[in-house]
Each structure stands twice: as structure tokens, then as C-alpha cells.
Amino acid sequence: MKFIRTKGLVIKKVDFGEGDRIITVFSENFGKIDLLVKGIRKSKKRDQSSVDLLTLSNFTFYKKGDNFILNTIDPIDFFYDLKNDIEKLEITSYILSIINEIIFPGERKKEFFQRIEKALNFIIKNNTQVNFFMILKMMNWIVKNEGYRINISGEKYFNIAESSITDFDDEKVIPLKKELFEILSNIEKKALISNEIANIEILIDAIILYEKYINYHLDTKLNLKKHLFGGYSC
């Protein structure tokens, strides 16, 4: 029997049978994989927390038939600081949804995994405003990493289908406020320093625009509104 070992983050879980659970893990070396955890729901509480959502661990597993079976798990970080802070949990929940939508099973995305791991630790240390801007920069990186680029030839409208910010108005474009254009046009230049970043509402507007862009071009279903419990208007 060949055992496989990798670091990974639990991004989804589904109870299965009387005591089993299937966990979806975004792994460093193998992309997104589903692991069958036998008898975990009948095990002691500590073991259950090791396969809970948003737990970073080293996983050892093997393949049996069409399934990957978890053999051992060594927790690295439970991210309690994220789970116990509602605003940080909102942002983290959205990150998990991005992973679930963007990454296909078995698709190896080591650099993306490393960015996600850094992002989770970044969220712990920073305020909501800076964290929203970090999400925006991550989405910009995703767009570029998937081979797309938003061309800027104006500043009044965002044309999702044409991947451009333009001054030409038609039925396909989205009007841009001046503050929103400033964020979108300088996203790669701005550092993550809170006193240089726009207010939260503008950042959310920018994220939603990127979300619409990614959903259109990558056929995903990102939806920030589902993850905001704090009552932000968007």
C-alpha cells in the first residue's frame, strides 16, 4: 500500500454514513482532494477538530478503489483567532469559497496554496479594511494567473466582456465612481498600508466588480454577499 503525504487546508466537510466524514482538502502538492475519514464522528473531540473546517494539517492518505482514505493527520494550525472573530471569519469564509470555485479536483496550484496560507496569517494580524484590500489584490492575481488582463483606456466604465476600463458607454458597461476607478487602476501599485486604502464600502464595490469579472470569464459563482454577516451594504 502506497501512502501519500501532503500539507493541506480543510475547506469543506460532509458527514457520510453512521460515523464517517468526507473532507475536501486544498493541498500543497495535489490541489483539491476529497479524503474519506473513517469513524471520525465516533472518535474523541480532539480528533474531530483536526478534520474540521479551516484546519491546516499534514495529511497521510492512500488510495483504495476510487477513494482516497485518510490514514493519519498531524494538525499544524486550527486558526482559532479567525474562527472566533466574526469580521475575520467573514473574509476567511469568502477565501474558502474562492478556493472551492477556482480550483478543480487534482489541479496542482502550489503557489496559490502558499498564498492562501500566508493570507490566513495576514488576516489574523490586520484590520478589516486592510484585509478587504488583500482580498482584492488576491483576486487581481487570480485574474492574471488565469491569463486575463484588464486594459485601461479610460476611467468611466468597466466593460467585463471586453476586459477593459473605458470611456465608451453602451448597454454592457458598469459605471465607475471616481474612487472606485482609483482603486482599480492602482491596485498593483498600492501597498497594504491602512492609511493609503479607500474606505470599506469602496473596497467591497471593487471586490464585487472583480467577482463579476471572474464569474463571467471563469464560469464561477463567487458571491461576497453570502459571506458578510456584519451588515455592510453591497
Briefly say what this structure is.
By secondary structure, the chain is an alpha+beta fold.
Description:
It holds the Pfam family RecO_N. The protein folds into 2 domains: 4-77, Nucleic acid-binding proteins (OB fold (Dihydrolipoamide Acetyltransferase, E2P)); 126-227, no CATH class. It is of the alpha+beta class and 234 residues long. The relative contact order is 0.12. The longest helix is centred in the C-terminal third of the chain and has 19 residues, at 200-218. 38% of the residues lie in helices and 25% in strands. Strands 1-2-3-5-4 form a 5-stranded mixed beta barrel. It has 7 helices and 9 strands; from the N terminus they run βββαββααααββββαα.
The percent range for helix content is 25-40%
Figure out the total of helices.
Answer: 7
Largest sheet: 5 strands, mixed, barrel
The total tally of domains equals: 2
- Coarse shape: elongated
- What's the rounded overall pLDDT mean? 90
Order of helices and strands: EEEHEEHHHHEEEEHH
Low-confidence blocks of residues: none
Protein name: DNA repair protein RecO
Family: Belongs to the RecO family.
Pfam family, one: RecO_N
Function: Involved in DNA repair and RecF pathway recombination.
Keywords:
234 residues, NA-bd_OB-fold, 5-stranded mixed beta barrel, single chain, 7 helices, 2 domains, alpha+beta, OB fold (Dihydrolipoamide Acetyltransferase, E2P), DNA_rep/recomb_RecO_N, DNA damage
